[in-house]
Every structure is written in structure tokens, then in C-alpha cells.
Design brief:
By secondary structure, the protein is mainly α. It has helices at about 5-10, 10-35, 40-55, 55-70, 75-90, 95-105, 115-125, 135-150, 160-185, 190-205, 210-225, 225-240, 245-255, 270-280. Its main location: membrane.
Length: about 280
């Protein structure tokens, strides 16, 4: 006779059969799902294009990545790689964009889209440039990457814009030096301030910060009592930026001490400024 207890007692064999049967079904289901996910490259690519058009840039980038991952030797893989970089950039995923663009450059350094890939690398830094109050690491990296565009792909459609953007990065870096220099000047640390303003004149002489840097040098040298360098800085400022408000201020400082602008051809400032701006060789 079969007792009620035996009816309730689980049958180990039956449980194993059910368990393995369930796993087998699940395995078949997962395998079918995986097969369904591996669509033709053209279909995945078209869907990624659609997402990009709709503004779903990150999803589009992930779709392009799938094309490259699943069909690395297909004719679409190379295009998918550069579009992935572009889509990640447009989606604000700068690290992912930079990695995708750099991967493209590693594989296709001489391809027609290589200049665009390098330009994307530069933009991922350029778009993160902060104001001069903060660290300028991204500004430095942007300048370097933009220089790569200009030097490696000078005839590309991106070189001209890279030049303009690089000039802006230089102005930002000069602005940072000016901020620090003004801080030292305001506290009477003239030597430290001169080092910062001198760096602007020597390294960033074509930026909009240069006229003020020259005026601040006048202030610093007068503060130290080195009047000949102050006169020289004012003369360089007046010669190169005669209509500048900074020259008006420098001239007033000098005349207030019964001095005037006076060029010293042997001064570091005169020689360096001519060399950088006019290309004189010494």
C-alpha cells in the first residue's frame, strides 16, 4: 500500500529528471536567443544608423561596435569603427570616443578617415577644457592632439579648424600663467611673477595675453627697482601694441617716475620677442 507520506515525499530521480529537462530547455532557449541576436552585419549597421539619426548616439555607437565585434573582416567593420567614435563623441562619451578613434588610427593610420579620427581624439579633450581657474591638463592634451591633426594631415578638411582651436588652447594656457602671475604680483613676489609673465612672452607670444604680460613685467621690474628692464618691456609693448590700453598704463607708470620707454637690444625680452614674432635668428 502507498502511504500518504510517500505521496508527499519527493522522488529524487524525478526531481533530477525535471531539473535536467529544464536546463536542457533553457539551454535550447539561450542558444536560440544567441542565434537570433547574430543578425547580418548590414542589418545591425542599418539599425545603428537609424539610432544615430534619431539622436540615440550611445545606442548607435554600441550597434557599430557590434558590427565590428561580430564581423571584424566585413566591408562594414572599418566604417563601423569610425562611426562608433563619432557617435560616442556626439553622445558625450569622450573616453569611449577616444578609444574607438585611436583604435581606428592604429589599424588605418593612412586611411582617408584617419584625419577625422585624429580630429575626434582632439575634440574629446578640447570639449572638456575648463576655465583658467582649474587644472589645464585637458587643454595641454587638446593642444597636442590638435597639433597631430595639423602636422600629420595638413591637407585634410580638419587641419584649418585644428589651427583655430589650437590657438584657443594656447590662449587658455597663457591665461592660466597670467592668473598665477597676477597672484604673485599682488603679494609682492616679483621674481615668481616675472617667471610667469616671461613664460607668456616666450611660449605664448601670439596670444591675446601678451600685451598684459608685458605691462605686468613693467610693474614687476619697477617694483624691484630694475628700471632698465621696465623701460625695455614698455618699449616692446609700445612698439608691438601701440594702441593697447596696457601700453597707456605702462607709459603712465614710467612717466610717473620720470622715466620713458627705451629699447635695450641686448635684453632677453627684445631678443626673444623678435625671434618668436619675426623669426630673427640669433
Amino acid at each position: 500500500m502507498i502511504s500518504a507520506a510517500s505521496l508527499c515525499r519527493p522522488n529524487p530521480g524525478a526531481l533530477l529528471a525535471v531539473l535536467f529537462g529544464g536546463l536542457a530547455l533553457a539551454g535550447c532557449s539561450d542558444e536560440k536567443s544567441l542565434v537570433d541576436d547574430v543578425r547580418p552585419a548590414e542589418e545591425i549597421f542599418a539599425e545603428a544608423d537609424f539610432n544615430a539619426i534619431e539622436g540615440d548616439y550611445v545606442e548607435a555607437a554600441q550597434g557599430y561596435d557590434e558590427v565590428e565585434r561580430l564581423y571584424p573582416y566585413s566591408t562594414l567593420a572599418k566604417t563601423a569603427m569610425i562611426r562608433s567614435a563619432e557617435s560616442y563623441y556626439r553622445g558625450g562619451k569622450y573616453d569611449e570616443a577616444r578609444l574607438a578613434a585611436q583604435r581606428y588610427l592604429d589599424f588605418f593610420p593612412s586611411d582617408d578617415d584617419a584625419a577625422y579620427a585624429q580630429y575626434i581624439v582632439a575634440l574629446t579633450y578640447y570639449d572638456q577644457i575648463s576655465d583658467v581657474e582649474r587644472d589645464q591638463g585637458d587643454t595641454i592634451r587638446a593642444r597636442q592632439a590638435l597639433s597631430e591633426v595639423i602636422e600629420r594631415y595638413p591637407d585634410s578638411d580638419y587641419a584649418r579648424d585644428a589651427v583655430l582651436k589650437r590657438d584657443l588652447t594656447l590662449d587658455n594656457l597663457a591665461g592660466k600663467e597670467m592668473q598665477i602671475g597676477r597672484y604673485y604680483l599682488g603679494r609682492g613676489h616679483y621674481i615668481a611673477a616675472i617667471n610667469r609673465f616671461r613664460r607668456v612672452v616666450e611660449q605664448y607670444s601670439t596670444t591675446s595675453q601678451t600685451p598684459e604680460a608685458l605691462h605686468r613685467l613693467v610693474e614687476c621690474y619697477l617694483g624691484l627697482g630694475v628700471t632698465n628692464e621696465a623701460q625695455n618691456a614698455a618699449a616692446v609693448l609700445g612698439y608691438n601694441y601701440p594702441g593697447s590700453e596696457w601700453y597707456v598704463d605702462s607709459y603712465a607708470l614710467l612717466t610717473g617716475q620720470r622715466l620713458g620707454p627705451e629699447i635695450d637690444e641686448e635684453s632677453w625680452l627684445s631678443r626673444n620677442f623678435r625671434k618668436i614674432v619675426y623669426g630673427d635668428q640669433f
